[in-house]
Design brief:
This protein is an alpha+beta fold. Helix content is about 30%, strand content about 35%.
Length: about 100
């Protein structure tokens, strides 16, 4: 097994809510009332999605470089975290290139 790393960005929305998203998998977006709540939920979703890629033999998404991450105009970035997902080594090598 090998670790793949993904950024999770937590935004503080004007309404007071938090949104966690990952630029590496654009359809992942989680809303909640605390930073920890959305970070935990986003981590679970990303882990499940990346492992699903591995189970069906697809190449998992690549992590973007921090300088390539686009912050949305609607929110203020609150924090960034790197999470790791274990995948079979033969799939990880394709996602790292």
């Amino acid at each position: 097994m090998q670790k793949l790393w993904y950024w999770v960005i937590v935004d503080r929305i004007r309404s007071g809510w938090f949104e966690a998203r990952t630029p590496d998998i654009p359809d992942v977006s989680v809303w909640g009332t605390t930073e920890q709540e959305v970070l935990t939920a986003a981590t679970e979703i990303i882990t499940s999605l990346v492992r699903s890629y591995a189970e069906i033999g697809e190449v998992p998404p690549r992590m973007q470089w921090p300088s390539d991450i686009d912050t949305g105009p609607h929110a203020a970035e609150f924090s960034r975290s790197l999470i790791s997902v274990d995948v079979p080594s033969e799939l990880a090598k394709f996602a790292l290139h």
